Amino acid sequence: MTLAPAFDLSELSDEEQLARREAHRVAEEVLRPAAQALDAMSPSERVASGSPFFAAMATLKSLGYHRLFVSADSAGREDPAAWRVRSLVVEELGWGSLGLATAFLVDMLPFVSVARFGTDELRAELLQPWLEDEVASWHGCWAITEPDHGSDYLGLRDDDPGSFGRSGLLATRSEGGWVLRGQKSAWVSSAPVATHAAVHAQVASERDLHHSLFAVVPLDDPGVRRGPPVAMLGVRDDPQGELFFDEVFVPDHRVLVPPGPLYPVFGDQLLCMTSSIIALAAVGVARAAFEEALAYARSRVQGGRVIASHKNIQLTLYGMFERVETARAYARAVLAHTFRNVLGAGSSGTGASPRHTRTSQVYCKRVAFEVAHDAVQVCGASGLVQGTLVERLFRDARSLLIEDGTVEVLGLDAARDLVGNYEHDHYDVEEMMQRW
Where are the domains of the chain? Predict the structure, then answer.
């Protein structure tokens, strides 16, 4: 894998500079106040009519941010510079609110998957209305985690697939489609507020998760039921909850990836895309924590001097800055590589590198937590006060180490790819198939 160099702000076009400034304005004026209000609410209040969550999502939709990841033209060619605007916007949204940025990102997953894998019929049914939505009447979620399966669902490349056991959501073949029975766990981001879900379900007649399908399910279909939103330590501004499926019929045209040998390849590349995006959101969290600590250190007077004049504080701030900058550079490079190889002109759609994308997500998550930890230390007791930005950033950054796959599972997945394929510079379908 050859990584594109990261860019500095002086290299941005006027249009890209404008996109960055506008995303920052929205993050500061819309997302941060909404996140602060949502963080203090009860779980039920966050999903009630009139919640700041819906207003924040409507703002993002009105600006067309949800269309950023469906930019390939009718011939399937990706704009080579699209990754730059994506990286700028996602970092700013993460800077404003990790929870609302997460809600924005999971919203896209069912519909972007339809754009990539759906039929013309399904694109007309689901993708086009979602693209045209500017009031947040459509919202997606990714229903993958289960009561008995969490991050291990991401490790489908294990040599012993049977070790994963049975799924909590099973699909049985029926005339013209599939019938879903079972549930997803309480950790499904945006499930309490979503209108559609991207759903993984194991074929009931098979013994392991490898034999799963991937489908889009409208959550107002008969047999779908939601559990109550749960109270979480962090990322409270993106409601999480269970989804139950009781004899839910999914017609064939809503099944994006049927059970078969391409499923693990698809899942692998999907995780490449999500990993490269989540990494930039984590960079935004880290930058927010660093900037809060820097501002506090410059203004806090103790012993007759601002604490930024002390060498230990200076070194702490430098270490925070160093980690933010290196994380951003790597995350941007990986994002560019991933989308070039998944959506770029002439790409097979399966050329993204698992080891690099997993590393990007793991590294940036760890940086976010380490920098948020240091921010609390710089701010002292002020950083422990409930409701302050630094305190919330610390809780959100801690959640990142688990959310969207634990850093341990993601690291093991990268290690398997590293051990088995380090000598390879790229991937194609045949090579990916042989790995499974």
Answer: 9-138, 141-257, 262-435
